[in-house]
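Page 37, continued from 36.
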């Protein structure tokens, strides 16, 4: 196990952050098993069915409505599920699944919700004739916003005649593509979903792909995460000052609280847009509350008309 976060260790510009981190971890350390899994791709390719198949063992395929904006759901993996793969995890692993609507009108919001320290599943389907540039759009946007986050390309509905994809070409251009899977959510092909789940479990516990999972963190970070989880049951958002007060109660100063905020934002614990002047003062605890609000605006007929006039 690493002793501290790789992005801190590797950056000479973060020497103050390194000393702060070491000061926090010297007394007590812990591990936070949590990550954000984003399902991306064009509309009507089965992302919602895949999300539900991953998070719910008893899910039965049905005709799903097109996702409007983002649907978010947890996939809680128990330690014994890792033992079957020979992986030692001593507590529940939380995967925050973000199911993105593929409609073009939503693309402008990706800059707010696609994050680093995540895992991406780029979904297409056997019947859909994807444009070559569609794949490059999604892979480039992940490269831009997701940093080195690993990508799994998934061909859905493999129970039907499948098409060939130039996977080797994509992998040469994008080094973070680490896997290609053909799956189907129909009951007779459940083994393909189970295989995908096993692969995701291997990826999220592999320090090469997601270094922060195997990184020892200050125990106070984990305690703050637990307190926020309790608050999330009652409140949609808190002020930045309220967040700071929580951190100060655990002896974290503002500089360290901001670093932790960036870390939690990437994991999908909450949303805090540090680079936005107007949004900086709010920490959004309920992701769906804020994303539903954003997409209700985008789905407004007048807004759609205006955007069409601007971008046509």
């Amino acid at each position: 196990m690493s002793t501290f976060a790789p992005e801190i260790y590797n950056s000479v510009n973060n020497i103050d952050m390194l000393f702060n981190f070491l000061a926090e971890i010297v007394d007590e350390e812990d591990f936070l098993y949590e990550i954000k899994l984003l399902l991306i791709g064009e509309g009507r390719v089965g992302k919602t069915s895949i999300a539900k198949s991953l998070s719910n063992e008893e899910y039965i395929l049905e005709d799903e409505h097109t996702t409007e904006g983002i649907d978010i759901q947890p996939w809680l993996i128990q330690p014994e599920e890792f033992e079957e793969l020979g992986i030692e995890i001593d507590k529940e692993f939380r995967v925050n699944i973000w199911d993105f609507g593929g409609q073009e009108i939503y693309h402008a919001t990706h800059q707010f919700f696609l994050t680093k320290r995540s895992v991406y599943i780029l979904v297409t389907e056997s019947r859909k004739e994807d444009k070559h540039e569609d794949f490059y759009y999604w892979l480039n946007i992940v490269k831009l916003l997701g940093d080195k986050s690993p990508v799994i390309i998934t061909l859905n509905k493999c129970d039907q005649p499948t098409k060939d994809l130039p996977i080797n070409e994509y992998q040469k251009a994008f080094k973070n593509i680490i896997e290609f899977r053909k799956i189907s959510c129909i009951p007779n092909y459940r083994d393909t979903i189970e295989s995908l789940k096993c692969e995701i479990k291997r990826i999220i516990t592999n320090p090469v792909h997601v270094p922060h999972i195997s990184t020892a963190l200050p125990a106070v970070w984990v305690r703050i995460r637990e307190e926020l989880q309790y608050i999330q049951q009652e409140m949609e958002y808190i002020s930045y000052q309220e967040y700071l007060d929580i951190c100060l109660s655990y002896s974290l100063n503002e500089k360290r609280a901001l670093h932790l905020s960036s870390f939690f934002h990437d994991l999908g614990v909450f949303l805090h847009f540090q680079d936005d002047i107007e949004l900086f003062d709010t920490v959004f605890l309920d992701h769906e509350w804020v994303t539903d609000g954003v997409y209700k605006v985008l789905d407004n007929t007048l807004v759609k008309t205006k955007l069409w006039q601007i971008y046509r």
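The longest helix spans residues 190-204. Flag for discussion at group meeting. Confidence is low (pLDDT under 50) at residues 7-12.
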